[in-house]
Design goal:
Strand order of the largest sheet: 1-2
Helix content: 40-55%
Strand content: under 5%
Length: 171
Amino acid sequence: MTPDGPIGPIGPGLGEGLPGDGRRPRRAAAPPQYVLTEDTPVYVISVAAELSGLHPQTLRQYDRLGLVCPDRTAGRGRRYSARDIQQLREVQRLSQDEGINLAGIKRIIELENQVTALQSRIAELADSLEGAATALQQREAAVHASYRRDLVPYQPPTPQSSALVVWRPKR
C-alpha cells in the first residue's frame, strides 16, 4: 500500500493496470461528443451578467442594439459564450473608460469583425497561392524529368573561312 492509496496516486479504476497485477489495461475513454470552445454558448443571462459585471437588462439592451448577440436556445433563451463575455467586458471598457457612445462601439466592433474576416481571407489566399506554387514546381520538375538524356558528341567549332561567294543569276 502506498501513501496515496491502495493503488497509487492515480486512484482506483483510472489509468492502465500495473504490470503483473492481473488486471487488463482499461480502454481509452471514447472521445467526447461535444467539445467546449470559447465560442460554445453555455452561460445563461444571469451568469453572463455576473461574469461581465453588468446588469442583465444591460445585456438585453446590448443584444437589441446588436453589440453582443448571443446564441439562442430552442425556447429563445439567450446563451452566452466565453467570447461573448469577453466582448461584453470590452464594450463596457470602451463605454466607461474611453467615453465612446454605443453607436461608436457598434461601428468599432463591425470594423474589427471586418478586419478579422479579411485577415482570414488573406490567410486562405496565401495557402492557395502556396499550393499553386507547389503544383507548378511539381509540373516543372515532371517536364524536366521527361527530357531525353542522350549523349551528343561534342564537335568543336570549325574555323570560319574568309572566302567571299558572289552569286549571280543566270541570264
